[in-house]
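Tip: read the tokens left to right.
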């Protein structure tokens, strides 16, 4: 992994902690974002440990470029200003960081901090699923992009012209995409919106609060048996899958489950989309945004087979085009668009 920290002491202590573990090793340690970009131009790493407060280009400013240069490397922010749920931690996650960890003073960098750092890395390593190569998106003369795929399996039902629920899946870079998307959706939009975003469980209340502020309407972290209601935004908790079930009175609710998902993610986009397709059929609008891996591809297939509409984020606007790229390459995407255009599409309640 690569360490990026302007403190010589911090680099030395963290490197010793990492190298003492059985699983990880440090292959580079630099004191600036510019040096990190130069290093990543010639060396491939699995993780980047990044400080925020650095002279010259700070860590948050450099983060999008480091994510791109890392070519799939996961970025763990290790900074004294990365308070969990705080503005800088949330901004880092929005810009593509996979996790954050508060860095203590130089005298406390070993001990409990070292154990917490290795634990974070182990969890990120277990969650890491690399996407297969995906097909390119064909540009259209318009300001958005659409996808022309090879013939897909015929839909099981006739497509409807609008929908009753919006289901969104996202991972790395997804918070930023979601923010752009909601700016294009009016506060008066009344259809329920469901989101599975790969985030640590402890961040979910802050994420829900951020979405509520952006959307101008209530957003809450799902609880077991929570009923789906108009005008509400529901986000999956960070430690459970969100599944939709039909109620006897004709309504629908969510159940929280913990079984392993095929994608290896917890929560996973696949069971959310698949279960919503089972309940709502052709009345689903499924959105898959930026993220590493292919979580959401199987669920999007279920939505497509049920006659619902599937939209993927385009390559150019994605921090990582793994998840939306897997959907686009499978041939089930009805459209491939940037987040603002997806928001406009949601607000229109019409198919692309």
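Filled-in amino acids:
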């Amino acid at each position: 992994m690569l360490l990026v920290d302007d403190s010589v002491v911090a680099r030395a202590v963290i490197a010793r902690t990492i190298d003492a573990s059985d699983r990880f090793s440090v292959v580079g340690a630099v004191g600036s974002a510019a040096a990190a970009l130069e290093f990543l131009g010639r060396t491939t790493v699995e993780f980047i440990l990044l400080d925020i407060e650095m002279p010259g280009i700070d860590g948050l400013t450099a983060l999008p470029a480091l994510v791109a240069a890392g070519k799939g490397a996961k970025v763990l922010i290790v900074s004294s200003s990365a308070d969990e749920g705080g503005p800088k931690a949330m901004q880092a996650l929005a810009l593509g960081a996979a996790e954050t960890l508060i860095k203590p003073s130089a005298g406390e960098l070993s001990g409990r901090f070292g154990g917490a750092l290795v634990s974070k890395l182990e969890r990120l390593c277990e969650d890491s699923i690399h996407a297969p190569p995906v097909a390119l998106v064909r540009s259209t003369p318009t300001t958005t992009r659409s996808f022309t795929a090879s013939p897909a399996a015929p839909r099981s039902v006739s497509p409807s012209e609008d929908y009753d629920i919006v289901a969104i899946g996202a991972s790395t870079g997804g918070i930023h995409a979601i923010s752009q998307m909601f700016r294009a959706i009016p506060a008066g939009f009344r259809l329920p919106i469901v989101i599975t975003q790969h985030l640590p469980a402890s961040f979910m209340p802050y994420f829900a609060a951020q979405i509520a502020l952006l959307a101008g309407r209530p957003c809450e972290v799902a609880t077991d048996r929570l009923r789906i209601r108009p005008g509400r935004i529901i986000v999956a908790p960070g430690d459970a899958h969100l599944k939709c079930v039909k109620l006897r009175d004709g309504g629908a609710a969510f159940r929280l489950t913990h079984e392993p998902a095929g994608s290896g993610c917890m929560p996973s986009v696949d069971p959310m989309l698949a279960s919503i397709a089972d309940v709502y059929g052709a009345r689903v609008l499924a959105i898959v945004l930026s993220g590493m891996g292919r979580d959401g591809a199987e669920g999007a297939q279920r939505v497509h087979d049920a006659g619902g509409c599937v939209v993927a984020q385009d390559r150019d606007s994605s921090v990582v085009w793994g998840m939306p790229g897997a959907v686009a390459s499978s041939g089930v995407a009805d459209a491939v668009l940037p987040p603002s255009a997806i928001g406009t599409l949601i607000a229109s309640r019409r198919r692309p």
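The mean pLDDT is 87. The chain has two domains: 2-127, 165-348.
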